Amino acid sequence: MQDMLEIKDVSKTFKVKSGDVTAVDGVSFRARKGEVTVILGPSGSGKTTLLYLVGSLESPDGGEIEVFGEDICRPGMDLIQYRRKRVGFVFQFFNLITALTALENVTLPMDLADDPYSLQDERAVELLGRMGIDTRLQKAKANKMSGGEKQRVAIARALANDPDIILADEPTGNLDTATGKVVVEILVDLARKDGKCVIIVTHDESILEAADWAYRMEDGKLTGIDTGA
Ligand SMILES: Nc1ncnc2c1ncn2[C@@H]1O[C@H](COP(=O)(O)OP(=O)(O)OP(=O)(O)O)[C@@H](O)[C@H]1O
Ligand SMILES: [Mg+2]
């Protein structure tokens, strides 16, 4: 199906001095456009690794990752384009370039994707405006911003190249409860209103309320949770 991300029996083992660590162990799940999928799990359960596999920042040892009908692990797959144009990442520690302004943080991925220079500022201003980052803040350096502002800039950056998939790794982990709620609402809107496929990994049980589909991850293994959605 074209609107579905399908992860089939994916595994990833890291070789470390003390032995092998199987971070992701035969994981299968589906995520759709227009829906929010939440993966809950404690520290070390493999959440970040799973997200990195979907975003192709890591490659799996086995299994299949099919993105809207395309196997991203096949030989010849243009993973650079995939990372630049199809997925947007949101991180716990925002990962903004602190010496750049909010606006520059959002135009940077457009530059990397070779977007026409003349359109970049306009689009970045629009995205930041939508995230509630006003004209003054757009020109502020990222290191001068509050956590909530940084995360909203980071979401605008994730949207820079209009990806189908938003991968959010503990997006509320560094925010107070109220600010975290705002960020989750933004992510939900991106699914419901913009039709993005949103995947959130977290240890924060309260994010389950936002989920259309939810899973629990433990020791690299995934099990479904009934959200009643
Ligand atoms: N690059 C790596 N090299 C070696 N081991 C790794 C690497 N990345 C992750 N691991 C190991 O894989 C396991 C899963 O790590 P991962 O970061 O995916 O967990 P997590 O659920 O995101 O944890 P947290 O909630 O603390 O962020 C851990 O045991 C971790 O030490
Ligand atoms: Mg993690």
Structure characterization notes:
The chain has 229 residues and is of the alpha/beta class. It has one domain (4-98, 150-225): Rossmann fold. The protein contains seven helices and ten strands. It has helices at 47-54, 79-86, 102-112, 117-130, 135-138, 147-158, 177-192, and strands at residues 4-16, 19-32, 36-40, 62-67, 70-71, 87-90, 165-169, 197-202, 213-218, 221-225. The strands form two sheets. Strands 6-7-8-3-9-10 form a six-stranded mixed beta sheet, sandwiched between helices. A four-stranded antiparallel beta sheet has the order 2-1-4-5, with helices on one face. Helix 4 packs across helix 6 (147-158) and helix 6 runs parallel beside helix 7 (177-192). Adenosine-5'-triphosphate binds at residues 14, 16, 21, 23, 41, 43-49, 203.
The low-pLDDT segments are none
Quick one: CATH superfamily? P-loop containing nucleotide triphosphate hydrolases
List the strand order in the largest sheet.
Answer: 6-7-8-3-9-10
The amount of helix comes to: 25-40%
CATH class type? Alpha Beta
Q: Give me the CATH fold name.
A: Rossmann fold
Domains, number:
1
Q: What summary fits the major beta sheet?
A: 6 strands, mixed
Report the sheet-strand fraction.
Answer: 25-35%
Hetero groups in this structure are:
adenosine-5'-triphosphate, magnesium ion
Rg, alpha carbons:
17 Å
Q: Which architecture name does CATH use?
A: 3-Layer(aba) Sandwich
* Beta-strand segment tally: 10
- What would the average pLDDT be, to the nearest integer? 94
Give the helix tally. Answer: 7
Sum up the overall morphology in one term: globular
* Pattern of helices and strands: EEEHEEHEHHHHEHEEE
End-to-end Cα distance, whole Å, is 21 Å
Q: Name the structural class.
A: alpha/beta
